[in-house]
Write a structure and sequence with these properties.
56 residues; elongated; 45% helix; mainly alpha
Length: 56
């Protein structure tokens, strides 16, 4: 059987840092929910409700 050698990437070796277990983290779906809610809140402030312009 042939031996294979595993080489480490020098690019990732220098910049990679393990995640600190004490650091708070959230799943991706929670970030998406927050962004959607923020979008609707900002939209409610920006949108001008005017009966004369409705639909134009």
């Amino acid at each position: 059987m042939e031996e294979t050698t595993v080489q480490e990437s020098s690019v990732l070796k220098d910049i990679y840092q393990p995640i600190n277990p004490d650091q708070p983290s959230l799943p991706t779906w929670s970030l998406l929910i927050v962004l959607v809610i923020t979008f609707f809140i900002l939209k409610s402030f920006i949108y001008i409700k005017d009966g004369d312009r409705h639909g134009k």
